[in-house]
Design a protein that fits this description.
The protein has helices at 15-26, 71-81; strands at 7-12, 32-34, 37-41, 47-52, 62-66, 86-87, 99-101, 104-110, 116-120. It has 125 residues and is of the alpha+beta class. Bound molecules: fe (ii) ion (FE2).
């Protein structure tokens, strides 16, 4: 069996807020506390384990989430309803835009801790 991504640790200023934000936007089950983590389990079983950065600076990371064509407008509406800035490109030169390539569509926005998030309907590969 090829190795599968199981989890990654995500630094946050407020792990509960960041994890809850993600589950609400994506329509996932609420975060599960596990030790110091707030665990968000995605549809393919890999989890993002949010942890308090303890006031230390941390780099913004990029996380992308694959959704169905039917889920896409729902997720996009949830993001827009929060009044968040969105972009159609990773360079953030297309405010409010959506990209269309690979036979799918997607867009970018920032989570509460500054991580750069993407919603896409087709995988790159
Ligand atoms: Fe990406």
């Amino acid at each position: 069996m090829p190795a599968e991504l199981n989890h990654t640790i995500v630094h946050a200023e407020d792990p509960v807020a960041s994890a809850t934000f993600l589950t609400e936007v994506l329509g996932l089950d609420p975060p599960v506390p596990f030790g110091p983590f707030q665990v968000v389990v995605t549809g393919n079983g890999a989890s993002l384990d949010f942890i308090d950065a303890g006031g230390e600076p941390f780099d913004s990371q990029h996380y992308s989430f694959l959704v169905t064509d039917d889920e896409y407008p729902v997720v996009r509406d949830r993001v827009l309803a929060r009044g968040l800035d969105t972009w159609g490109d990773p360079g953030r030169t297309e405010p409010g835009g959506e990209y269309r390539h690979n036979g799918g569509t997607g867009f970018y926005f920032c989570g509460p801790s500054g991580h750069f998030l993407e919603i896409q309907t087709r995988p790159y590969l």
